[in-house]
Design a protein that fits this description.
Elements: E1 3-7, E2 10-14, H1 20-28, H2 47-54, H3 80-122, H4 132-139, H5 153-184, H6 192-201, H7 208-232, H8 243-282, H9 301-314, H10 319-334, H11 352-356, H12 359-371, H13 373-392, H14 402-445, H15 450-481, E3 489-491, H16 493-504, H17 516-525, E4 529-531, E5 539-541, E6 547-549, H18 550-570, H19 573-592, H20 597-610, H21 617-628, H22 646-650, H23 654-664, H24 670-689, H25 698-707, H26 709-712, H27 716-759, H28 761-767, H29 770-778, H30 784-795, H31 799-817, E7 818-823, E8 826-829, H32 831-848, H33 851-872, H34 880-884, H35 888-898, H36 900-916, H37 921-933, H38 935-943, H39 956-970
Antiparallel strand pairs: 1-2, 3-6, 4-5, 7-8
Helix pairs in contact: 3-5, 3-39, 5-6, 5-7, 7-8, 7-39, 8-39, 9-37, 9-38, 10-38, 12-13, 13-33, 14-27, 14-28, 14-31, 15-20, 15-24, 16-19, 18-19, 25-27, 27-28, 29-31, 30-32, 31-32, 32-33, 35-36, 37-38
Length: 974
Amino acid sequence: MPQIIDFEGQQHEFPDDFTPADIQRALASVPPQAAAQPAPAPATPGLGAQNAAQSGRLYVTPEPQPVERPASLLPSSVGGAVRDFTVGAQGVGKGLTDIVTGPFDLAAGAQNLITGGINKVFGTNIAPAIPASKLVEKATSVLPGIDPATMSRSEKLAYDVNRFGTQAVGTGAMLAARAPSVAAANTRADTAGGRVLDHLSRPYAEAPARTLVGDTIGGMGSGVAVNAVDNYVPEHAVVGDTIPKQIANFIAPLAGAVGANTVQGTVEGLAGAIRNIAARSFGSAPAPIPLNPNTKAPYSIADVDRAAAKIQGAASGAPRALAQDIRENAAALARPAEEGASPLQSSAMPTSGLLSRDPGLIAAEQGARLKSAPDFIKRDQNVKSAAAERVEAMRDPEADLGSVMRRAAQARDERVSAAENEILQREEAHRSVDRIRADQGQPFGALGNSEVKANASRRLDEALVDRTYIPARAEKNRLFDHARGRADELPADTIFSAIDRIRGNANGLAPGVLPEDFIRRLNALRPHMVEQPPESGQMVNVGGPGTALGADLADLRKFIGPAQERAQASGNFDLADNLGRLRSAINRTIEEAPGYSEANANYQRFAERFRPERRDEMARFTRELDRGGQNVDGQLNRGGTPPSATGDRFLASPEKAASLTRALEGAPAAPDAHAALRDYLRSDFARSALNADGSVNSIRANAWARTYSDILAQFPAVRTEFEDIVATARRGEQLSAQTKADLEAARVNRKATEAEIDRSAVGTLLREDPRDVAKKLLGNKYGADAKLKEIQDVIGKDEQAARGWKAAASEVLADKVQGTRQVGDTLEVHFARLAKEFKDNEQILARVYSPEEMNNLRQAHKILSYFKEAEKRATVGSDTAEKMGIPGWAQLAVRHFKGDLAGGGLIKRFKLMLELLPNSRESADQIVQAAWFNPDIAAFLLERPLKNRNATFNSVPLRRLIAAANASRESGDE
């Protein structure tokens, strides 16, 4: 059912789901009217009723019910501890809601400010914008919870404190998280929103935790002030209506935060004062701080704090990080982890400013150096002396530099010896091939003359003529001489016809052509048929029988051949032809005679062997033998066929060689003939193919073989032998050429090896002193990497040479990096020179020295590198002016009245006088002075926690932001 409420004489109807808070807000927006009669006051008005009465409004509450109040935390709480916790939780929740809706509330507040002004000026009635927090509050009103309007005074106060404290701590935490990036940025944000957030975040850059604590306390104070405004400032004032309330809603958070932070500062100040008094009275300097050298008493904590503040103030980087750097750098020198590096004594440790590598500390140390120069000079000399000793330790005066040259000479001998051994091997191979070739030609050496060839021809002739042809001819003649057909009468008709044919020629048979007695006997045998009696018609043979003895015909053949040849020689070719026909007729007659069958068969074989046809060379040879006859001693007359020419005759062409082979085939003398033939050919081969050194010339041997190839084909065994001889000669000559080329290549290789050695590290080390080589190597006059690798390959595992080379390099390195000034027992090492060597030649040095030696050298480089940091920074002068703090207006006045010169003198004397006076800063300066020489003291001072005087106590922009947001939320209540 709807709720009916009487307010200022009028009844107002509200939905049944409206809470009292909703009804109160709705009635508050109703303009006040004159009441017809006084409204009855509630029997027991509460706080809310009193506020309503003061503002002329009616506060409607349910009838009060008597309740039993449980134990509670808040003085006026009515619900016990659970209710108190609920109140606090709602305050925190409301604070978180305000954080989320804050930007929207500020926008609504700005809009309401503008529309409110327009309504005032122009009399319009533009409805105000409802802040986002109000919308959220309305949307969440249905949730279970305690209505702030029903809370007691203490509950409402706790609620507001939690609400505004949550706003402060939540918003401040987000801004503190953004502060580091804002502090590190070099340019401002690109957007307007980003620039606003940067402005709000900057107070948290120095000490975000301290600022956040102050903001939290200030936020709680803002809650107290806002609660007071809600309780004591009416919504509609007699003067100004709602304006005083609006102003109060804006000023209250600011005033409350200022008050709370003031109380915080007062409490912290009192606590700090008490702590300082106790520290001065009962405390002393921590353990790392030494005793005061003047009083031998410990320094006070205040002195230590002043020293820590001074050294931390001089640092450019983060003090704790610099302390860590100093400790690590000092430990790396005092207790090096690298094998081979020597521990650095504390008296030779670089000063703390140098160890920090921080520009600010180095500049501060430079100022201290101007005041206490001897101490710093002594320490610097100790440091440089330590570095110089490490470089000097690289020298090895006892090393034998000559061992490097000896090793180079040995390496040259090894390489040249290898090349010379190659030459010797090639020479031996070439000589071996030449010996083989000479051995091949040696059997031919004695054959290469005409006498050997002629003797071979004679042996061939002896086997052919005396032992083959003559016996065969004798056998032929014997068979004919003893044939049965010699006593037989053989028909001679064809023979007579041939004789008649000869006689029919113009020349006839001239005397001497054939034996006359044989012709007469032959004519007596001719038949002569006459008619007898005459004219009887009967023919009677009055001549010979018409036959001839076989012996006569056989003997006649002996004369026909020579006669025929003489006829041909005389040019009577017709007679020669007729004689040939006569011989043929006789031969046919004898061949047909049964008594000559055996002789004819033997003759057939004889003819096929020695005289197969007239132009055959063997036929010619045998005919010449037959015609030559015999001398008075019964020997053949060989004037036309000398035995020494037989070989030349039959080996002149393949056809002639074939006739020789045919004649010797099957003959008992054939092996001897072939042996003679082989010797003949070998002699001819020797004369054609042998070189002057007795070896076989493969080219001429091959040419000879090609010339005699067809002839050799008639003698397979001999041909195979010569083919092997030619092939062997060819292979021998090829091997000889190859071994000769290999020998020449080996000689060329030796020359190239010698030239290469001269150009290589071996030649360099032989020609130059190892120190000069190392100097050029470190000076980049060679291809350093490749040259060093060559040198190390040459030295190899020769320990003495390796030591000598290392000593040479060390001597050159030391000479290059050392100066002329003495530090300790050695010459000073210049960092710039050593750094240049490391930059240009570190890889080369790492290959020359062992890892331990390189670590020692690197340590020297590292020690000196700290001085380079000081050289990079500009030195500063004395800080006397800073300590004295003479105001500038006072100095100006003195110079004005006394003049620049006199006034400057007065100021200088006054400053000197002030320096002589004892002051509290002297102890701090002594501690700082000790810190420059002791890394532990410097690290301790840098790490000592100090009050951050640049830290912001609280965030004023956040305080203003909370106030503006609170005013914006209340602007929608108009």
